[in-house]
Amino acid sequence: REMGQHGVDIIVRGELYNKFPFDVECKSCETLSIPEWVRQARENNTKEDRNWLVIFKKHTMGSEPFVLMEWSCFEKLFRRTL
């Protein structure tokens, strides 16, 4: 999805929509604005069966992106691996 459009940044459809229960907000930045990103991700997350997820990359922190989510969501994912 192009930058600056309203809604989630990655549109997931079909079978993957059920297997990947996340509405994704993407950021590439040098200034961390985590409270604003979380607010935006929560606003874009409109369905109860979906979780919000922020993927961000800060160039001065390396080449790998980071993932930001609520603890309860992480905990559910972790419990599935046990």
Structure characterization notes:
The chain is α+β, with helices and mostly antiparallel strands and 82 residues long. Helices cover 33% and strands 23% of the residues. The protein contains three helices and three strands; from the N terminus they run H-E-H-E-E-H. It has helices at residues 15-19, 34-44, 71-81, and strands at 22-29, 51-58, 66-68. It has a three-stranded mixed β-sheet with strand order 1-2-3, covered by helices on one side. 13% of the residues are buried. The mean pLDDT is 86.
List the main descriptive attributes of the protein structure presented here.
82 residues, alpha+beta, three-stranded mixed sheet, 3 helices, globular
What topology does this entry show?
Elements: H1 15-19, E1 22-29, H2 34-44, E2 51-58, E3 66-68, H3 71-81
Parallel strand pairs: 1-2
Antiparallel strand pairs: 2-3
Main sheet specs: 3 strands, mixed
Note the beta-strand portion.
15-25%
Class inferred from helices and paired strands: alpha+beta
Helix content: 25-40%
Order of helices and strands: HEHEEH
Shape designation: globular
Spans with pLDDT under 50 lasting ≥5 residues?
A: none
Spatial separation of the terminal alpha carbons? 35 Å
Roughly how many Å is the radius of gyration? 13 Å
Instruction: Tally the helices.
Output: 3
Extended strand count: 3
Mean pLDDT: 86
How are the strands of the biggest sheet laid out side by side?
A: 1-2-3
